[in-house]
Design brief:
Layout (H helix, E strand, L loop, with lengths): L2 H17 L10 E6 L4 E7 L4 E7 L13 H17 L6 E3 L8 H11 L5
Parallel strand pairs: 1-4
Antiparallel strand pairs: 1-2, 2-3
Helix pairs in contact: 2-3
């Protein structure tokens, strides 16, 4: 087993463990975060109806800037997802780190979303 395959397997196991407990409802949807090597994505999901309410990522022109795959890019996505969620009438969410460690870009996105007005 290669090292990268072991990391991916470990993240998938952590993700399954987290998702057993974290569910998004209409009153309090789930803020799901995914990070790749170059970009970071966030979406607010109502798991009961199976709908994505709002989304933001570093590929969108309104969020793009210097450095998409770094902490600054994650902060821009956090602010954008908070603005869009508040505009859609969502003020409180459940945070789903999607198996990623709460550190670096994931933490920066969460902190920026909190500063933008979302309650976790």
């Amino acid at each position: 087993m290669s090292k990268s395959n072991g990391k991916k397997t470990a993240r998938v196991r952590r993700k399954a463990h987290i998702r057993k407990r974290v569910r998004g409802t209409a009153a309090r949807p789930r803020l799901s975060v995914f990070r790749s090597a170059c970009h970071i994505y966030a979406q607010v999901v109502d798991d009961v109806s199976g709908r994505t309410l709002v989304a933001a990522n570093t590929l969108q022109p309104s969020v793009q800037g210097e450095g998409a795959g770094n902490i600054e890019g994650a902060k821009r996505v956090g602010v954008a997802i908070a603005e869009r969620a508040l505009a859609a009438g969502v003020s409180s969410v459940v945070f789903d780190r999607n198996g990623f460690l709460y550190h670096g870009r994931v933490k920066a996105l969460a902190d920026a979303a909190r500063e933008g007005g979302l309650k976790f």
